[in-house]
Amino acid sequence: MFRKFIHVKLILIVSSLLLTGNKSASGFDAQNLKCEYLVNPIGIDVQNPRLTWQMKSTEPGAFQRAYQIFVGTDSMDVAGAKGNRWESGVVIADKMPVEYQGPKPDPFTKYYWGIKIQNEKGLWSKLSEVASFETGIMVQENLKGAWITDTYDYNIKPAPYFRKAFLINKNIQSARAYIAVAGLYELYLNGKRIGDHRLDPMFTRFDRRNLYVTYDVTRELQEGENVVGVLLGNGWYNHQSKAASWYYDKAPWRARPKFCMDLQITYTDRSTTTVSTGDDWKTSLSPVIFNSIYTGEHYDARLEQSGWNIPGFDDGKWGKVMCTGSPSQNIVSQCLHPIRCTEKIPAREMVKQDSCTYLFNFGRNISGVSQITVTGVAGTTIRLKHVEKIDAKGRADQSNINENYLNTGKEDPFHTDLFILKGEGTETFVPHFNYKGFQYVEVSSNKPLNLAKESMVAYVMHSDVPATGSIHSSDQCISKIWEATNASYLSNLFGYPTDCPSREKNGWTADAHVALETGLYNFDAITIYEKWMADHQDEQQPNGTLPAIIPTSGYGYHWANGPDWTSTIAIVPWNIYLFYGDSRLLQKCYGNIRRYVDHITGVSPLFLTDWGLGDWNPAKSVTPKEFTSSTYYFVDATILAKAAKIFGNQTDYKKYSDLAGKIKDAVNFKYLDRQTGIYGNGCQAELSMALYWGLVPDDLRDKVVDNLKKSVIANGKHLDVGILGSKTLLNALSENGDADLAFEVATQKTYPSWGWWMANGATTLYENWLLTAKNNSMNHVMFGEISAWFYKALGGIFPDENLPGFKNILLKPNFVAGLEQFEAKHEGPYGVIVSSWKRSGGKVLYQVSVPENSTATLTLKVKKILESGKELSGNRQISIGKRDKNFVVAHLNPGRYEFSIEE
Prior knowledge:
Blueprint: E1 7-13, E2 28-35, E3 42-44, E4 50-57, E5 64-72, H1 75-79, E6 86-87, E7 91-92, E8 98-99, E9 110-119, E10 131-135, E11 147-149, E12 160-168, E13 172-182, E14 184-189, E15 192-193, E16 210-216, E17 224-233, E18 258-267, E19 272-276, E20 282-285, E21 288-291, E22 297-300, E23 319-320, E24 322-324, E25 331-333, E26 339-346, E27 349-354, E28 357-374, E29 381-387, E30 389-390, E31 396-397, E32 416-420, E33 427-429, E34 436-445, E35 456-463, E36 469-473, H2 476-491, H3 509-514, H4 516-522, H5 526-539, H6 563-566, H7 568-580, H8 584-588, H9 590-602, H10 625-646, H11 650-671, E37 672-673, E38 678-679, H12 684-692, H13 701-714, H14 723-734, H15 739-746, H16 754-759, H17 785-794, E39 797-799, E40 808-811, E41 821-828, E42 831-840, E43 843-850, E44 855-860, E45 866-867, E46 870-871, E47 878-883, E48 888-892, E49 895-902
Parallel strand pairs: 3-10, 16-25, 22-32, 40-44
Antiparallel strand pairs: 1-49, 2-4, 4-8, 5-6, 5-7, 5-9, 9-10, 11-24, 12-17, 12-20, 13-16, 13-18, 14-15, 14-17, 18-19, 20-23, 21-22, 26-35, 27-28, 28-33, 28-34, 28-35, 29-32, 29-34, 30-31, 36-41, 37-38, 39-40, 41-42, 42-43, 43-49, 44-48, 45-46, 47-48
């Protein structure tokens, strides 16, 4: 099972990770300071905000022994190591995050903070650079504006404008805008659009929770007359499209978009004033004559009102606003990485199909919007039809996404923007309140147009989460799979994880938990998942039930929401704990997980449940739903027991540990043949799920592994799983000594495989293994575990459950046959982890970087580690632990290492 290695030589490179930023005189300091996982955030509502940093040192082996934190309202005091709100004193600790423990923060207040750290030698660093965080309203009663709209008729299609003029006759020190919206919005001050966010605020269960956003608008204000302008869009709040397969048109919250806003201005004489929404605002309909988050946006440029959001505009014909009720009694801060346009893509080619029709190809499948620049006669109507593929004649083809329920007709064509020209020179259109999934855009018009390839560009849009991971490989197929998987992940991250950016845009729960580790290895996505777990809490029923899509207007409580799907309530908080070492989300969701598990137990007297969808979209073999759902029932109970232990709840720990054991016994009693080591019908999903999730008895593990291997080989070394099996198949093989076989399965160039998709030109992942499937979105993330598998199996990077957040890194690389070079990097809470190897001259050269203030446990499949011909006994940076005939375990301190392995 294990590859034979003849000789290993270890070389310790006496240097640390490449460092950035200024170094302290003592050679180490704290850098990369964040609050609530954001850099200098404004508008947070947390009473005990979490603070994080990274230790950087010029020498290897550096550890943090203690810290001192200073928090105050005066930046100069904090820079001098004084805090008038909180000084932590010397705290002997080396883990993060650290919660602010000072007096309750005041609303609308900017706090500065800095930190000094002590190293393992007892030396103190200089104070870090000063960071900040700024509170928002803290409690919703502090939002003074009235909720306003233009009408109660939610069938009115044009989007409304709102404006308010006001005077400033003092010198401004600072100004903040706090805006809460039911629907979507764009905010303007004196003609300038505020911020670079798109599609704010994020989608929530609007009748249970609404988000507000904070902006620093100091520079946008001026002495004299000022004007604030707001444009409102429907978003998920007022779904007007006929394509309402998920009941959004019947949502209990549905109403005309509305908003509430306070513009707080502080002057240099310390006086303040607040411009709030109220009945003195004015409103008018806008040129956005229709907007739908599903289908598209219609814009009539002939209706533009030049200068509507700047001083001097005559709003005499505008109407009065209507004061209305708050959509919910829970207005909270939107404290997460926002949606942005992250990349501008020129058209790769343009084909003129006739005098009124052009097809633009952007070269890859994206989520986002297109922008057209054109000249034409007034009243010319341009249709911008967005598609993922073209047919055999080279025409735009929506057949893969308009199956059955998305035939919306001529008035509201699906995935299509309408732009009506005003006929005054060069005109540009980009939608305000929509995004789409596409590679091609068909531009058609009712009058001839003269377009060039440069007439259109596309903008990639998604939640702008920072990248924290990368891989580099000698195998082009691996590189393409990684890029395509990450593209699908980001294409489906819009303040919550979705299934596809084209047909649905729904928060399907299983899609998200299958691709969760891909997100966490590659991106700093904790803020998105914390928001999404709040959505779960909003949607959970009193009996514990959760819907299959979250957020939802009501769809998904009746179908698809068994434990194989909605185990997100346990799996997401648990993995956030593993990757960040932060137990806050797990603790917040503890009661929800318990209620969910108790509900399953209440309807599953024999500890088996058939409630769920099963291994959705399998290549061929069908796994029993009872097996898959009972497996996830076991997973949930296991996570709940572990969480109870972490939080010191011994009663729950015993209760749910016992429950997990009973579920395991029940599954094995019904599905495991102890003589043969086969689960159920012996399909790949059954065998791999049992192995990966820990159902297999220890004494039968080798048999089950052997059966899985035989099943894969008998299938021509191809996968035969759906989305649940795609999570476990490769992992079960690589974690049980068959990484070479898993690598072959992943990179097959023939059906079915991820490699098969790449060989056929995919730039994102698909909804079905079969390319010709009738209902096949071409940008789905549900088969997205593969990107995480690269980090785990080939790079060997795992979080340690006992020291989470990569405080201790588990390194278990596999130098698979057929691959010459591979490197995985992941920036965890403590810094960048590198696991890199390549073949050279009959040897494998393996390099490791362990960041400061963390350790690593390296497991290599070798008999012993040698240095200069002698067995290494250890030094300050490395010690040798457990040995047996197949592997050796080395414990690494911070630093860089190189191993030379003779094969």
